[in-house]
Amino acid sequence: MKALVTGGAGFIGSHLVDQLVKQGVDVVVVDDLSMGNVDNIKNQDAVTIYIEDVRNEMFMQALLQKEKFDYIYFLAAVASVADSIERPSETHEINHNAVLKTLEYIRTAKLPLKQFLFTSSAAVYGNLPELPKKEDSRVSPLSPYAIDKYATERYVLAYGELYDLPTVCVRFFNVYGPGQNPSSPYSGVLSILTDCLENNKPFTLFGDGSQTRDFIYIEDVIQALWLITIKAAHHQVFNIANGRELALNDIIKTYEMVAGHELSINRTEGRLGEVKRSVADISKLVKLGYVADWSLESGLTRYWEGAEYAASRS
Ligand code: NAD
Ligand code: UD1
Question: How many domains does the chain have?
Answer without folding.
Answer: 2
